[in-house]
Structures are given as structure tokens and as C-alpha cells.
Specification:
mainly beta, 2 helices, 47% strand, 14 strands
Amino acid sequence: MLFDTATRLTKRLALPVLLAVAATAQTGAAAPQPANTVVLAPHRAVYDLKLTKTRGSRGIEAVRGRILYDFSGNACDGYELKFRQVSELDSGEGKAAINDLRSTTWEDAGAKKFRFNSENLLNDKPTDTVNGRAERDSDAVAVNLSKPKAKTLNMPVGAVFPTEHMRRIIAAAREGKSILEFPVYDGSETGEKLYNTLTIIGRPIAPGARPVTDAGAKVAELAKLTRWPVTISYFEQKDAKDEKTGEQVPVYAISFELYENGISRALVLDYTDFTIAGEMTSLDVKKAKPCN
């Protein structure tokens, strides 16, 4: 059971990657338009993880770990994210599992092309590898996988890629919107998953209000920016024939404070039966490469 939990923990996490416009994008919806007014800051952040809450009888006594989030690019060359999460789960009975998720993605600025490559290791042994690309046309998002096995499939044209997801949440927050719904495709799991997302944006935190005490306090420009409390819940997408009445429970949720330049702090990762907090312990804001 401990190893199942460890695998599930890292397989679902693609970390703070968001959206914007208060409209639901369903299968037949038009392709989302890029939130071009949002400028994302290239940066490298480190988050230290620890267990804050357990529910049920999963037997998790402690979680320790770290997330490395390295984001670069611009509106001409596209955006690259190098992500790594290492987590140690302890059952308290001398049993521990170390999960190591490594992922690299690239997305063009027009929200039309997306490449992804990830590897998941459990106690230093590879368990999952995913490699593929996705491209949007006028009718659908075509996905081509080379790993774990060669396969082609189509996602709805309204599906949002990760960086565009982030730009859209920031754009919506600036407009005062508080609820967003989108399907998100991020290449996670086996590359065949599409998740419906519900995003709740809280009231803005004005520049200078509620000063932070984490690594963000050392970056002067952050104190000049507005930030918002954000919660994103991920739901399994089901066929209409499989839909059941009643409220659907999210498989995963993430909460954080989001600056208007795309930097996130105060992470809370909710895996339903346990919750992990992520404190930003290091932040390096890079100089943006100008468009040629």
C-alpha cells in the first residue's frame, strides 16, 4: 500500500500550471486563445515538502521531499519547464518509499504545440516513462506518444496546455474573475489522461500587503506585484455514458499564492488522504531573453 501511494503521489503532480477566461471549454468548444498580455518570469524555485495532514488509514506517518521548478523561455521561442520532485514516504514501521519524478516540457507561445518527456523512479528503479508531443489544429489536439508505447489519440480542441493554463489564470485574476473551468492536457500519467479542472481565485493581495517570510522575501521585485490565492482541483474526465449523479470528488488539488509574473509560493498539495505543504526555500529570478 505504501508503494502504491508513493507512485500515485508523483505521477499526478505536474505542479502549478494554470488558466484564465471564465468559460467552460467542452469537447466541441473552440480552441483557447493565448493570454498574450501575461508576461511570465523565467525563474528557478525550490520547494521543501512536509506532511501536514493525514486522513483515513493509509498508514503515512511522514513525508519529506523537495521540488525543483526551473522555468525559462519567452513569447518567441516558447517556454521550457524542467521539473523534479523527490519524495520520501514513511509508514512509521521501518518501511519507506522514495519516489523521484523528472519531467521536461516545452510549449510554444501560441498554445498550439506541446512536447513532454517524464520518468518516474521508485526506490531508484524506473517505473514509468512517458514521451510524446501534442499539436492543436482547428478540430482537435492530436497527441503522438512514443513511450510507454507508440500511440496516437485526439483530445478536445478546447484542452489547455500547462503554460497556457498559467497565463489564463493570471489574466482572469487581473480581470477580477474567481471561477474557471477547463480540461487540461499535460502529458501526465501514461500520456493518455485528460483532466477537468476547477480553479478558484481568491481576493487579490496588494503589493506590500501581507509580507512573505520565505525565499520570495529576498526578491525585491516580488513585493511590487499583486498575488492571488488559487486552488485548482483535478477531476477524472468521464464519458457521458459513465457520468453519475451527485458531486464528483477531485482526485487531486493544489493551492498556492500566485504572483502576476507566474511565480508561486505557499504550496499545499492535497492527495485526498494526505496533504503536503511546500515552502519556497530558494528563488532565482532569471533575466528574460529578448525576442529576436
